[in-house]
Amino acid sequence: MKFIMKYLRPHYTMMTVGLIIKIIGTLVDLLIPYILEHIIDNVVPTKQITKVALFGGLMLICAFVGLVANIVANRMACAVARDSTRAIRSDLFKKISYLSSKQIDEVTIPTLETRLTSDTYNVHHTIGMVQRLGVRAPILLIGGIIITYIMEPMLCLVLLAVLPFITAAVVIVSKKGIPLYKKVQQRTDDMVGTVRESAQGIRVIKALSRVEHQNKKFDERNKRLNAAELKSGYVISLTTPLMNAFLNIGMSAVILVGALRVNGGKAEPGMIIAFMSYFTIILNAMLSITRIFTMFSKGAASADRIAEICAIEPDISHLPKGERENTDAFIEFRDVTFSYNGTRQNLNNISFTLKKGQTLGIIGATGSGKSTLIQLLLRFYDPDNGKILVDGYDVRSLTSEELRTRFGTVLQNDFIYAGTLIDNISFGRDISEEEVTTALDNACASEFVSTLGDGVDHWINTKGTNLSGGQRQRVLISRALSVNPEILILDDSSSALDYKTDATLRSNLRKNYENATKVIVAQRVSSISHADRILVLDNGRVVGDGTHDELISSCDIYREISLSQIGGEAQ
Q1: Homologous superfamily of the 2-310 domain (CATH)
Q2: Are the beta carbons of 43 and 52 closer than 8 angstroms?
Q3: I want to staple 386 with a disulfide (CB 3.0 to 4.6 A). Which of 82, 335, 359, 483 is the partner?
Q4: What is the pTM of this model?
């Protein structure tokens, strides 16, 4: 929980004030049974109604002060829990945003989602409960014991005899509970992953009639989570019955000893009634402490999981920028080798140069390394060997902002979020509506946008489910073009376009973005046949490098693709 303390430091003043108010309210509550005992044993025998009413009024005042103080303190505790958890969640989200692709692959998206949601909720609940009950319950427990000892030491000692057993039960059970709750959260990660996969692939699942298969898969994960929750619940739930057993034994002993002392004239009936009230207060305080330990076990496990992510050090560092290399290449790969898992080479000795304003086409079979090359250029990953230069600078010497603001990018699995069309294109950047309109024209999207009743203000669902595949791709291309980028990357972004629209798009790019350096990954030869240079990839290696005409005569793989699609001629 050391991780949580730094988020509580800005709230120490409010926590201190709330603590003082909570203590006052709790102490006032402790006075009520004592006043009752005084009324029964000392005031009632005098038969003075005025005194009875006076002390009764004092009890009401104490109850009111205790009520108001506890409400105020609880509201302050909720505010501290809210603000500190918001800061934790914000920092965690920022940390996740800056994790490298490799680190995200290792941690996995489902566990990041769980830590950002249910784990932060557990921490929030723990912070609030510790402030509310973590102060009140110990004061009631200790205060009740002190007052009962002052009132009747013999009965108090009977009660104290059972407390070591209760304490031992709580400590042992809580110690075993934290690892079990961590396991519950891990099982939650698995289930979230399954739900996420099913939600993303729901159309494919239905199309292939695999709904029952996915249901069985979910049931399996759900049962594993349920088993983990049951195990942790069984262990933690032992505290309440154990406490009740010990406390009931203690209460029985107190009643027996108290009856003997009253019968022997060594105690007053009012004192026994007050003692029983304090015993109830102590019982409830112990039950509250049990709930605190239970919640603390969850909160500690969740805090550890959040701290694990926040403690991850960036694995992508920046080299000294130095001077620009004297080269006329705007983009250059020098003997770049890369592997995702360290065993199979996904890219092997890739080398090429591209001058400013030129177009590079990349084609190859699925899994040949096309998108991997793009991810290295954007520095989502660093190469294992070799060097990548942009405008004469090693990309490892440029900050993320310096590098990526040069790009307009449409990735293979790009996304559209719920919002208006113009919001999806501007994407929070300072882009005018005129620039958006220009981008829509050049991306061949104006035609379908004009058919929408509200134009660029048209609402788009998450993932663009109310758009066709071709419309989604044109919106994404508009987003990339809207910033008039130095480098335009289109990774398989025209696969859903018809040939006429694709040809018009290529024509617009040549005429209106002639100064932009373009890298186009495609499955169609027609999409890249106009490129100044074409790379043909196969199993992470360059097996063809040249223009369309050159590759037709020199590269068997390219020739086969071209013949199967367009008969060997550029369209």
Answers
A1: ABC transporter type 1, transmembrane domain (1.20.1560.10)
A2: yes
A3: 335
A4: 0.71
